[in-house]
Each structure stands twice: as structure tokens, then as C-alpha cells.
## 1
Amino acid sequence: MDFTFLGTSAGSPTRSRNVTGLALSHAGTKPWYLVDCGEGTQHQLLHTRYSVMQLRAIFITHIHGDHTFGLPGLLTSASMLGRTEPLDIIAPPQVQHLIHAVIENSDSTLNYPLNFIDSEAADFHWHDEHLDVSSVALSHRVPCRAYVFTERWVERQLLHNRLQDDGIAPGPVWGELKNGCDVLLDDGRLLKSDHYTEIPRQPRRMIVAGDNDTPALLATAGKDSHLLIHEATYSQEVADRVGPWPQHSSAEQVARFAESAGLPNLVLTHFSSRYRSEPGSTPHINLLAAEAMQHYKGRLFLARDFDAYRLEKDFSLTRLNDH
Amino acid sequence: MDFTFLGTSAGSPTRSRNVTGLALSHAGTKPWYLVDCGEGTQHQLLHTRYSVMQLRAIFITHIHGDHTFGLPGLLTSASMLGRTEPLDIIAPPQVQHLIHAVIENSDSTLNYPLNFIDSEAADFHWHDEHLDVSSVALSHRVPCRAYVFTERWVERQLLHNRLQDDGIAPGPVWGELKNGCDVLLDDGRLLKSDHYTEIPRQPRRMIVAGDNDTPALLATAGKDSHLLIHEATYSQEVADRVGPWPQHSSAEQVARFAESAGLPNLVLTHFSSRYRSEPGSTPHINLLAAEAMQHYKGRLFLARDFDAYRLEKDFSLTRLNDH
């Protein structure tokens, strides 16, 4: 499972960080999925291998502008590029109103259907052939969701000993069994895929959370997950000074939660624009990493725009590019 | 009069060109004016000296998304930065609907008033202490305007001979007269500013046009103007192939018009994304310059993102930066 950060700044863009967007795919870049779509997301995509032509679905965590204002431009550009494939938009109902109002008041047309799915519906669940997606309600100034992406299909492995013991020779039958199909032989024997194969590992599962001041809401989902991507807008000291109103998390809060949930991988993102990345500048973004590391012993990253990661089949997390 | 291109691409952004936006000021960067606001305009501004805190007014030529989709982000970011000054938005009425719908459906608030002014009103006229702004109706798929910016105040020059002849010694009186104020002397004489000063030149005037397939609509405005900024979406050959529907201009069309109107300076912008700037790439953007030069003998530029220009007091046009 691959993903690339398209924006890692909270609220407003900075010179080096755009507002929130995450491109995610099961393998390669076709199809792919977008989580949140701040202004300039279509611009960021031009510098990646992801194309709006192969975008399968957009998941919006909540209605704030730094997570949604890129939608009108991305959707109309896809139409100008010739897209005709339907597109699922999983979002709170206001996002549908916003898109309709913008299209209506800008003389825009979309030459493909939008399929709106209410992310706030009690029975929300989405899937395609690659991924199952469920959601968890978070705590923010407006209704907000974390999306839990679980791979739908884990390749079976043949149990060679059993096949040999039963005299089943290598050939097309092995391929069928590996694909999960039962096979009826000419001699009348029915070979059950479940008997001759095993599923060698759990499906990979990752949580992409929206804005949230209560990481513990992810306790249940976190138990079976291999990765959490969560906002860490401030350090604990700044969070204390800012007060509870913005309803964001500190690096410490998220780190403590990830540690208690036993999550092996944690990527922090959505940083206040006060934090700087240039060497010697202050407050430096590495403060947030230092704070998180005091409370979390797993594999930790601070996201940067255009950082690409892979959640491997052994559940380790690898950064694919290096700045 | 200074201006910086924030975007020079038609329809969609490219890797090196954003969609339309132009920052303009009378002197320095405080206050300044924005003409059109495509998606990502606030991002582009972060790389210039213009700040949303000193933005006086936004002029929108027409409602298409590549000229308007940056408004919600720019306006809400200005609020987050602490802006409290009112902001004029000169635009077709749909832009007001768009902004209200987006704010309402994204839990946004603006901590300063927006002052909407209908750009399509028959008696449209705007001014502040620096600039007079009128408009000209263009021809495009939707109602579209060119804005004509005229400097409001040209510094008077003292007529030293007359002052000496009348025995008026250098001092504060000279300053008053230079500022256009009449002065009553202790001896009872009334000195008329108009008598002791002259206005040494015409006010500078520049036209910033929106999308338009009929440059000749600018014939009257062009007569007294020193600069035209106009779209040249295609070469004539591509325009012929694309057909009339998009209602854009070719480089040739605009060049012929500017030549016939006697305009001394012409900057072309809003180029189709098919044109490339990298050396050796094709079709190269310089095709458009070559085409325009065949029909226009004045000073010609093709705009690039972040190019800054100055219309000097002698009506010459200077590019301030060089890539």
C-alpha cells in the first residue's frame, strides 16, 4: 500500500507545505484514492505519478476549507482532460452543496458523473476490488472522520506438501487453487482451495485520520491496524497555550495514544504553519518529532510534501524517496 | 505602476504556470489590487512581496473557475492571518453566490467585511486615492470585462520662473502649491496652485483584459492607454482548428489590434497548456511571440509566472526581474 503526501500544513499553505491531501493506492498508481483535497491539490498532483484520470474515489474527512477547497478545480480539470469515468466522493453532505454551488456559479460542466456518498451515515462502508474502507468518528469543531483502509485481497500460498501427498501435479490447477477457486478434477475429485492453500498474513490496514482532539477514539480501530496517519498540529506546550477551542492534537497526545494502542508505525502531519523546516529556523518542526519520540517507541515519521511511503506486506513502513 | 503575474495558464495549471491572477499596485506594494483569482493564487502570493493584509480590492473579469476558484482560500487565509480591513470584490453577481455558498458549507468565517460591487452594472466605476478603474465589456462565453486602470494623481511640477518673478521664496508655500493647494499669504495675496504648477504628463493608463474573442472591443479604451495585457490562448493556426466555441483570441488577432490601436506596450498571457517553455519542447511558447511580432511593432512580452513589470512615468514598460 503506497501513499504520497500532497500537503502537510494546517489551515493555510506555507512556501514549502500545501494544505491537506493524501494520494493512496493499493499497488502502483492505478486506480488510486485521494483523502482530503485542500486548495492546490491538483497542482501538487502534477509533480507526482498520480493522474486524475485514474482517481477512483475521494474521501473527505470534514468540511473545513483546508481539506475541501481544492475540489472544484480538481474536478473541473479532470473533465477538461477528458475524464468520463464516474467518481465517488465520500464526504459530509455540505461538500455536495459546495460543489454544486461552485459549478453552478462558474459556468462549469463535468463530463462524468459524481457519486456522492455520505461519510456521516451510520452504516458507512465502501469498497472496490482492492480496498475495504470503514470510518471512525473523531472529535473536532465539525463532524470529522478517520478512514480505515484495509486491503481486500491477500494472495494465497499453495501448501505444496498437501498437493504432493494427494498427487496433484503442478499445472493450471495449482493456479486456480491459488486464486481461491475450488477445482473439480476429471476423476471426480473436488479440490477445495481452502484446503490446499493458506492466507499467509493479515491484510494490511492503515488509518488516515482527519482533524481530531481525542486520539483515543481510534483505540478499537488501532488494535488491528499497522499504521496511523494523524494530525499533530502543535507541540504540547503550544497546544496548552492555544487552549482547547481549535480541537486539534499535540504531538505528545498522538504519540501516547499510538504507543498505548501498540501501533507499529506512526506518521504525523497537518502542522501549524508556525513550524519551520529550514536549518536553524525556530520553532523547528523537529521539536514535534522530539516530543513524539519521548512517548512512542514505534517507527515514527513527520510527513513532508511529496514524501512517498510504502506499507510493506510485513507491515513495516518504508519511505520511498529521500529529500 | 507595478504588476506581477501570478498565473499565465488558460483553464488548468501546468507544472510551471498557474491559472490566472495578476497583482497590481500604483507604487510599492501597499495597497495593491488583484485581477482574477484562480486556484492557488494565495500560494503564488507567498513567493512575492504582496500580502493579503494590504490587498485593497479584487477585480474579477468573469466567472470561469480558472479566474475565481482561488477566492475562498485567499479570503479565509486573510481572515486567519488577522485581517480586519474591509475588502472590495468587483465581480459578476454569481461570484458573491459562490463565495457565500462555500463559506456556508465549510464552517468558515471572515473577520472582515466583503463589499461586493457588480462589475456588470451599466454605470460601473471604482476608485481609491491612487487609481480610477473603469471597465469595457468583452466577448466571451459568459459576460466578461476588461478593467482600465488609470492613475488618479500625477505629481505637479513647480513653475520656478513664475514663482521667482512674483517674489515667492522657497519654503512651505512651495510644498502646498506642489500638492495642488491654493495658499493665502499674510500680505493678502491668494496664490493659485494651477498658476504656479503644471501637470507634466498624462496619467498612466493600462488595460487588463479578461477572456475575449474580439480585441476590437477595446478600440476606444486602447486609444488613451499605454499598455494592454490580453489573453492569447492559441496561435492563429490552432485557433482555426479549435473553432470559435471557446471564444478566445489568437496571438495574431491581439497583435493586429494592438498595432491598429497604436498601443505602445503589449503583454500576452493566458496560454493554452499545450505550449511549453522548456528549450527544445514543442509546440514552444515562443511560437506565439513570433506570430505576434509579425503584426505588432510595439514593445511585446509573453508573460511568465512571477514576472514583474513597471509601467514607467514615461509610458515605457520595464521587466523588473529576469529569470
Note: DSSP finds eleven helices and 19 strands in chain B.
## 2
Amino acid sequence: MALLSFLFPPKAKSATAAKERLQIIIARERGGRQGQGYDFLPALHKELIEVISKYTKVNADDIKISLDRQGNLEVLDVNVVLPDADAP
Amino acid sequence: MALLSFLFPPKAKSATAAKERLQIIIARERGGRQGQGYDFLPALHKELIEVISKYTKVNADDIKISLDRQGNLEVLDVNVVLPDADAP
């Protein structure tokens, strides 16, 4: 589980330290033919947020998204700070 | 992007080497109160596969899933080998 050390950027020492956090990483490695195939990551991430909102409250401004491309690899990284269970 | 070295297990030297691959990692770090909150990762992953199938063909037997728990961290790791674009 060395991957764990890469998950969740180091916590801010502020009130968010004890908050529940969710991170979703979607990595797509394209096969041999460069640039082939429809680029669905941006559309995919929008639907993922909708699916997650069914299970837990998510505030749009608590979501940080980054999309990186390197060679034939694309990585979508979504970080969500979840509101406290008893928050209004 | 050191995270990249953790994505995608090393490729088998077989025909799947040039295949398109998708990896989804969902990590949930629970807040201070241990064991609080509904455990939605298993249900979430099922819906994620449905969302992904809207964008690209996915064969159920090409999906490898692992769910690890360590302290207040849960990591769902979904690896999908996508069929060739021109596969029947």
C-alpha cells in the first residue's frame, strides 16, 4: 500500500484537519495508437461528482480538480473535502 | 507527477501491452470520529463502472477491483483493460 503515501496532499493544520476527505484518481493509458479514441475524462469527472453526491453531501467549492497529461497517460485527480456529518 | 509511477501495475509482456487501460482509485479518509458515516465505497464503485461504460466499452471480466483499509483510510482501486476500439 505504498500508494497510500501519495494519496491526500498533506493536511493543512487548520480546522479541516479532522474533516472527512475523498480523493478520486482516474488514470487513462492510451494503447499504441497515439491520440486515438474519444477524450472522455472531462465528461467522466462531471458524472462522477454527481454519483458521489448521491452518497454524501458535496459542496462544489470543496472540490479541487487537476488534469495532467504525460505521453500516452492522462491523470484526473479530484480532491473533495466532505462537510461534517452534522453540518447543516 | 511522481504519483504516475504508482499507477498501472507493470504491463504484462503479452498482447495486452498496447491495450488501452483505465485505473480509478477512490480513497476515503474518515474524519476524527472512527467508524462514523455510511460505508459507500462498494456501492460507489458499482455506479462508477456504469458511468464509465457510457463512454467506452467495458467487459466485466476485464475489471480488477481491490478494496484496502488502513486506519481511517479506505482505498478502492479499479483497473480496467479496455477492448480495442475496433474489437467487435
Note: Chain A has a mean pLDDT of 75.
